[in-house]
Amino acid sequence: MPDTQYQFDQDRGDPAPLTATFEYLIEQRTAENIVFTAHLGDVTENALASEFAQADPVFKVMDRARMPYSVLAGNHDIDGSKDDTRGPSPYLDTFGPQRFRRMATYGGSTANGYNSYHVFRAAGRQWLLLAMDWRPSDASFAWARDVIAKHPKLPVILTIHELVNADHGQPVAYFTDQGNRVWDQLVNETDQIFLTLNGHYWPPGRVTRKNAAGNDVHLHLTNYQDRYYGGSGMVRFYHFDLARNTIDVETIAPWILGQDPARRNALEEGELELTDDTNRFSIPIDFEQRFNGFAPEPVRPARPASQLVIAGTAAYWRFDGPVTDKVIDYSGKGNHLTRAQLGGDTPTASGEFHPDQPGHASWLFAGGKDPARGGYLRTADNAPLNAMTFSQGYTIEAFVKLADDGQDHSWEGLLSRVGTGRDAGKTGSDPDEPVVKLGFSGGLQVQWAVYPANKNDTFTNWGHEQVAGRWFHLAVVNDGRHSIVYVDSSELLRNPATPSNGLATVGKPWLVGAGHYANTIDQGFAGHIGEVRIVTRALKPAQFLNA
What we know:
31 strands; 8-stranded antiparallel β-sheet
């Protein structure tokens, strides 16, 4: 909530817009998950006690609803020629520490009362917000640094009246002299500050700047006092979406939205919502990565293989050790893998792994085609797995990260069974295709294509395009009637009914890290494989390896 000063300007203002905005926030609190409101200063125009007396009951609307908020002093709220050691003021009488002590979010203030901080909880974590004076003294900057140091794992939003400015037609913001001081004394060396919000100037603008740690700080200017009716009580929403790694920003005028549309004047019609790029936009932020330097996500502990060998486990391979010629089957069924090579580079051991993977390592396969190259693995010719048809159903799981190397890996295989449809006596579809293949199309779509034991054609599940360079858990589940593909425990769309009495087999080995066509391997898999498990029954997502 930026500069509301024209609404509290001696007898020239009108508290109705801000009152309507606060009532709207209270009404939408649950639906929009509104957790905090920050005023950016210049509550009043002339810093008069009479103006603060007008503003006080409006903010009490929030107080009565127990809606947490912060307020800071702008240059119109106090004697702007002095820093925060200025002493008593009508501002301090109204918005000093005594007002905020009743709030659960309030953490404390400087001794002079002009700077405060709040801690609130949202999206499963705590956040710290600093509300700094128009002109913080050096001692207040030291106080802010100390507050942050005492909350070393909290991401910080800095609110202050002046930091960046912007020009009409040039929405990229730039630092003022005071903004440079704030950056140098507080922001640059404090990696926890990832977002700053200030008012004072108009029009709105924003800029991103690297701090001393090399991380982005998003610096935003928002102010609507120059617009119709002193800004009409406009409010800017910051919607934090940690699942999408995005902050969606929008600006609306609840006071006008709440009016009868038939009674709005022409100017009000243009102020309902601001949809230009400076007032409605999205900020991509990888929150986990951005906060990793001070609040790394806890790593899920590794789990021993014995815990994952559940009833019906036919094979369980983990690539969490050095690259060797043999990979143990932890199921105890003897379906060990032997390494083979097409040419080119052999697999290498990697410390990378999916965050929910039981084993904390993987192998990086350097496969490719034209010519066929890369390493892969295969079961022995007499492995029990080779003859299994899985007539009662199955679950096949893998932790995978596709190579992001810019090369063509279309139609690569992750897991397949040696033998073609033709070898199994099939004549439908393309009988030179493998009897079983789990792989990826030219568009990186998941493909599970199989010949059922009692059907003449292939049945194929298709997934959506996967993102190269990103770990995911992949599962194929069949209950004897239907096959479903899951990515990170989310059911995908194109899953056909698969009435059968199991998978076709010609009794030949399974391949990990390769597919084939007409029994010829034309390329090795490119990317990381963490582990693979095959179970002779349909599992629920809660039973998957990533659960």
